[in-house]
Design goal:
The chain is an all-alpha fold. The protein contains seven helices and no strands. Helix 2 runs antiparallel to helix 3, helix 3 runs antiparallel to helix 4 and helix 3 runs antiparallel to helix 6.
C-alpha cells in the first residue's frame, strides 16, 4: 500500500469518525430497549446508551478540531448521526405514549425542521454556500438531548425523581422553540439565494 493511499484511510478511521460511527450504531440499540416501555431496567439501559451517544456528539467534533482531524466524511456524517438519534427516539417515545396530546406538536416541529434543514443544506451545498452552525443551534441540540434523556427515563424515572416526564416535556417544548429559531436562519439563507437567482 502506498503512503498516499494510507493517508485517506487514516483520515476515515480516526477517533472522531469512529465516535460518530459509534453514535449511529447506538441508535437501533436505544430503540430496541425502548420497545418494551414497561421494562424499567431496559429504560435505564436505553438512557445509558443514549447518554453515551450524546457524549460522543460533543467529543467527536471537539477532538476533530483539537487534533486537526476534520474530514469531509466527518462533516457529512456528524449531523446525520444527530438527526438519526433524535428522530428515532422521538418516534419511539410517541409510539409508547410518553409524548402525546399537545406535546406531539413539539415533536412534529423538531422532525419537520430536521427534514427542512437537510433539504436546504443540500440545496445550498450545490450553490457552494455554507451556513455555519451558530451557538443557538448548539444550545438547541443540547436542549433536545437533555429533554429526550428525561423522557427516555420516563416512568422509571418517576420512581426516582417525581415529575421526570413533565420536566422532559417542558424541555422538549423549549427545544422546539429553539428549533424554529435556528431553522429560520437556514430558511433566510435559502430564500436569499433563490431570490438572487
Amino acid at each position: 500500500m502506498t503512503q498516499s493511499s494510507a493517508r485517506p484511510r487514516a483520515r476515515i478511521f480516526n477517533l472522531p469518525n469512529i465516535l460518530t460511527f459509534g453514535r449511529v450504531l447506538i441508535v437501533p440499540l436505544v430503540v430496541a430497549c425502548l420497545f418494551w416501555p414497561d421494562e424499567y431496567p431496559l429504560r435505564w439501559t436505553a438512557l445509558g446508551l443514549f447518554t453515551l451517544a450524546a457524549v460522543t456528539d460533543f467529543f467527536d467534533g471537539y477532538l476533530a478540531r483539537v487534533w486537526e482531524q476534520q474530514s469531509e466524511l466527518g462533516r457529512m456524517l456528524d449531523p446525520i448521526a444527530d438527526k438519526l438519534l433524535v428522530s428515532a427516539v422521538l418516534m419511539i417515545l410517541v409510539a409508547d405514549g410518553t409524548i402525546k396530546s399537545w406535546s406531539l406538536w413539539a415533536a412534529i416541529v423538531i422532525l419537520c425542521r430536521e427534514i427542512l434543514v437537510s433539504g436546504l443544506r443540500e440545496f445550498l451545498a450545490e450553490l457552494k454556500v455554507s451556513v455555519p452552525v451558530s451557538k443557538v443551534a448548539k444550545w438547541k441540540t443540547t436542549m433536545q438531548l437533555i429533554a429526550l434523556g428525561f423522557l427516555i427515563a420516563g416512568r422509571a424515572g418517576e420512581e426516582v425523581l417525581p415529575g421526570t416526564v413533565r420536566i422532559g416535556l417542558g424541555l422538549l417544548w423549549l427545544s422546539a422553540l429553539l428549533t424554529l429559531y435556528t431553522g429560520w436562519d437556514y430558511m433566510k439563507a435559502g430564500i436569499k439565494h433563490v431570490v438572487e437567482e
